[in-house]
Specification:
Elements: E1 4-7, H1 13-20, E2 29-32, H2 34-50, E3 55-61, H3 65-76, E4 82-86, H4 91-100, E5 108-112, H5 120-125, H6 132-145, E6 150-152, H7 158-165, E7 170-173, H8 192-197, E8 202-205, H9 207-210, H10 215-226
Bound molecules: cytidine-5'-monophosphate.
Length: 227
Amino acid sequence: MSKIIVALDFPDEKSTLQLVEQLDPGMCRLKVGKELFTRCGPNLVRQLVTNGFDVFLDLKFHDIPHTVARACEAAAELGVWMMNVHSLGGLAMMQAARSALDDDNAPLLIAVTLLTSSGEKELADIGVQQTPEALVKNLAKLAQQAGLDGVVCSALEASVLKQQCGKDFLLVTPGIRLKDNSVDDQQRVMTPEKAVANGSDYLVIGRPVTQAEHPIEVLQLINKKIS
Ligand code: C5P
């Protein structure tokens, strides 16, 4: 199975399926995020699951523990492979999410540490004096303490987090760019090969694939580079 998770950041079902119909589950997994989920809802997620894809539901739940736990149960009922919460919701919130998803068939549960679009300035703006790396290490430690399966982080932090959390703690890294790609709104980016070498278990790739003239060729190329 591929380490690539394609971020289906599309505005509607039609454009989503136009890409998905060209893909097969051996080539990549799929990520449904806030835009697509808000537009198309659970039915599209179920359809992708029925078509044999591993689906990562990226809704980054961040709320009081009770609400997050019930939302996690609802997400698990869709048959998704992986889902996430936001670690800034705190230890009790992550523990509640874990308790809601504690059977053998439950989806993998991971926590976002710091968005890859945020850097030192964004942290300072919200009053956080720590460096991105120090904050990410701390949040990953909390996620592991809560019993989560891994975290979403930048590939820049992957090697330090593998050392800190051990090889079985999953690292899922967005902000992946090929050498000649635009960085877009991301700040902390890395190439696929380097991300995997740094310890990333799964690469979340959106625009470099979805906006490419030949998405399948890009996917095949990246799969080759990291296999
Ligand atoms: O297009 P691009 O490759 O930048 O897409 C990255 C995807 O990963 C987006 O769907 C974004 O929501 C998601 N993501 C991220 N940073 C995080 C967590 C998720 O960019 N920390």
